[in-house]
Amino acid sequence: MIYIQHKILYRICVWLGHFLPALIIDAISICINRSPRMWKLCKKVDKFSNATQPFRTNEWSFSTDNVQEMWSHLSSEDQKIFQFSMVRFNWKKYLFNHYMGIRLYLLNEDDSTLEISRIKYKRLYWRHQILKIVFAFAVF
């Protein structure tokens, strides 16, 4: 990952590194009678990147000291009613719901495409690994 501080330079790099290759690949796809998909994919990635930019570029530090202090002052009855202790918080379930929400509300993809997306992700992952190996051999 390359971090670029200036927004204009970042946008130029995105266009040269993402959108221009997508246009070229889509043009080739049209020439060989295949449906163009890269432009649409690049727009989705760019939309997601822009939506998550503040969380990717800033350093966040959270403290739960006040919540823990408040929790310790609650009676056992109130602790049963207001279950907000982070000790038993299910992070795996939270992150799963978080990613499913991103899929649904940011990427506009419903759950019916989940299995197909997983298959496509695995294919893309292995293509990327092979491409890195090819580049490594080309450089050395």
UniProtKB/TrEMBL annotation:
Gene Ontology CC entries for this record: peroxisome
One Pfam family per UniProt: Sterile
Taxonomic superkingdom: Eukaryota
Record bears the keyword Membrane: yes
Single GO MF annotation: alcohol-forming very long-chain fatty acyl-CoA reductase activity
GO terms of biological process kind: long-chain fatty-acyl-CoA metabolic process
UniProt keywords, alphabetically: Membrane, Transmembrane, Transmembrane helix
Domain Fatty acyl-CoA reductase C-terminal residues, every copy: 18-109
TM spans (from-to): 12-30
Keyword ATP-binding among record annotations: no
Protein name in UniProt: Fatty acyl-CoA reductase wat-like
Gene, per the UniProt record: LOC112457113
